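Data deposition worksheet. Section B asks for the primary sequence of the deposited chain exactly as it was used as input, without tags or linkers unless they were present during the calculation. Section C holds the resulting structure in token form. Section D is free text for depositor observations; keep each observation to a single sentence. Incomplete worksheets are returned to the depositor.
Section A, Depositor: J.P.
Section B:
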Amino acid sequence: MNLGICSITRAELRGAVEGLQLAWELGYRRVNVQLDSRCAVEILQRHQDHDHRHTAVSHRFQELMQRDWEVSLTHIYREGNKCADYIASRGHQMPLGYSMFPTTDTTLVSWILYDTLGLSEPRLVMNEG
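Section C:
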């Protein structure tokens, strides 16, 4: 989905909501939402009641989670989800709104297999403080 001009955090949040809605419509009842934005994960876990620029999308996410299904939300490093990274990089070239990727996109198919096998690249992570 190409959202046009928005922040990375906004894109992550909208992706989480749209992905959950799609999973529900497709009949999935056990879903693990994995986001590579720690900020987005924290916003969705906070249950904000005050006026915040992401309040509406956060509330929508919470409404979806309250349905009769199992949903978990976790933070992962970008390197652990090459498929999503590839789709995001291609999204800038797509028209606004929803787009379908062709099943003949061999790069996408390769990244799906890569992620399914749990493969990842090493990353040096330094703790702050």
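Section D:
The beta strands are 30-35, 70-75.
The longest strand covers residues 30-35.
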